[in-house]
């Protein structure tokens, strides 16, 4: 693989081809964007382009160096990620990184470090990394990969060039699911459709446990009663095991998935209500049930519910209390659904 195989990130590929051609690679970058849009894949291709034995702005993919990087076996490239069973990058890992960077490159002119999940660091780890970023050796290039830029310390952010990755298009996600994860055409199409441009989310949804949770949610949404708001949000938190997730960032990412599931359900009802025949329903197994259920909603009501969920997604990104956020959202949805209008209607 080389830059030519990076999907949908042409702007970033062109930027870095220029950077490499002009030998202007910065000492520190943050690659940010939602999970599953190719940040890690790109960083590895970038490393290959930088270290490749054949000069040029892209990797040749065939030289000894390119192949060793593909096999995680190149001494001037280091990858760091949270260790197994640890939710954060430990300070020891970053101290080791300092030591490694103090030794000059062994095989090339540069040393490159890719830090995955750089948004998962505690105070001590962040401070240790900061020290490295304050005075990097001239040959060092550090790439931080972070889904949530907000979770990276300001002092770290200000020392890095920030590169934002966009979501992938549906056909691109579908092709990756078929070619790399060997999913069937129809399943790949459906998952690409509901993944919001993230291969990782699509892969996650293909897991049967995730599907069970989604099915549980739809079953419950179909039978909600006016006074269910508190019991339903409590059940939801326990059934989706939200309280079991310790790291806030992971919890927030997980609840985001949950809110997307809400969004898909009401979006399906809206499609059934409006009767747009060329728009597919995500929950194909429930198509008939959703069609009859949609009769109890007005179009306006469904648009407002979608608005409530989208606003909740924004609050979630702004660090709102998760339990309260779910309770509030469900209360507002039920008020709308059962006739107590709250969004400026009588
Ligand atoms: Zn090469």
Largest sheet: 5 strands, parallel
Indicate the overall shape: elongated
Through-space gap between termini:
59 Å
Q: Strand portion, in percent?
A: 5-15%
Percent in helix: 40-55%
Order of helices and strands: HEHHEHEHEHEHHHHHHHHH
Number of domains as seen in the coordinates: 3
Which ranges are low-confidence, i.e. pLDDT below 50, for 5 or more consecutive residues?
341-346
Number of E-state strands: 5
Structural class: alpha/beta
Mean pLDDT across every amino acid position: 87
- The CATH architecture term of the largest domain is 3-Layer(aba) Sandwich
CATH superfamily of the largest domain: P-loop containing nucleotide triphosphate hydrolases
SS summary, helix count: 15
Q: Which molecules are bound in this entry?
A: zinc ion
Spatial sequence of strands, sheet with the most strands:
2-3-4-1-5
Output the CATH class name of the largest domain. Answer: Alpha Beta
């Amino acid at each position: 693989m080389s830059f030519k195989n990076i999907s949908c990130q042409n702007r970033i590929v062109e930027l870095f081809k220029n950077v490499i051609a002009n030998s202007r690679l910065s000492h520190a970058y943050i690659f940010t964007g939602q999970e599953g849009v190719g940040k890690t894949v790109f960083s590895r291709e970038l490393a290959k382009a930088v270290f490749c034995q054949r000069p040029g702005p892209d990797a040749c993919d065939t030289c000894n160096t390119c192949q060793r990087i593909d096999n995680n076996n190149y001494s001037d490239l280091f990858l760091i990620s949270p260790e197994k069973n640890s939710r954060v990058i430990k300070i020891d890992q970053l101290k080791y990184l300092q030591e490694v960077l103090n030794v000059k490159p062994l095989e090339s002119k540069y040393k490159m470090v890719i830090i995955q999940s750089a948004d998962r660091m505690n105070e001590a780890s962040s401070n240790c990394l900061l020290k490295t970023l304050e005075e990097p050796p001239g040959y060092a290039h550090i790439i931080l990969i972070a889904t949530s830029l907000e979770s990276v310390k300001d002092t770290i952010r200000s020392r890095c060039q920030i590169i934002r990755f966009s979501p992938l298009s549906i056909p691109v996600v579908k092709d990756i699911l078929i070619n790399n994860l060997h999913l069937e055409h129809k399943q790949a199409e459906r998952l690409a459709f509901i993944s919001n441009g993230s291969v990782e989310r699509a892969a996650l949804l293909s897991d049967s446990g995730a599907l069970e949770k989604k099915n549980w949610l739809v079953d419950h949404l179909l039978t909600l009663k006016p006074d269910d708001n508190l019991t339903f949000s409590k059940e939801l938190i326990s059934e989706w095991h939200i309280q079991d997730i310790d790291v806030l960032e992971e919890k927030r990412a997980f609840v985001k998935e949950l809110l997307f599931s809400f969004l898909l359900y009401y979006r399906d009802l809206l499609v059934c209500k409006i009767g747009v025949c060329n728009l597919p329903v995500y929950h194909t197994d429930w198509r008939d049930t959703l069609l009859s259920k949609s009769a109890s909603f007005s179009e306006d009501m469904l648009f407002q519910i979608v608005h409530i969920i989208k606003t909740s997604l924004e609050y979630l990104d702004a660090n709102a209390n998760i339990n309260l956020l779910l309770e509030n959202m469900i209360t507002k949805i039920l008020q709308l659904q059962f006739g107590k209008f709250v969004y400026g209607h009588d």
